[in-house]
Amino acid sequence: MIDVEESIDILWEKGQFSSREEFLNEALRSFLKEHPELRVELAVEQFKTGTVSLNRAAEIAGMSPEEFKDVLSDHNVDREPGFLSEDERKDQLNNL
Fold this sequence. Notes:
The protein is an all-alpha fold.
């Protein structure tokens, strides 16, 4: 079995990556390229938690926002409309 931590350290120390974070980002990109179905699951979960917008989640999933809306529906994820309430709108205008 490969010692993942040791392997990351060796590659980092040899200058293959500028940081452990860069290595992990590259590793995740490669992993998702090999397992595209997980891109959709990742995008759905990130959208559900509010860490990404609908458009960004669709981009992560590799599809259009309209296609991603269908995926959200298939996953029983409710989308709140992107409109502000009257009070929220007034607050934002007052803060300008």
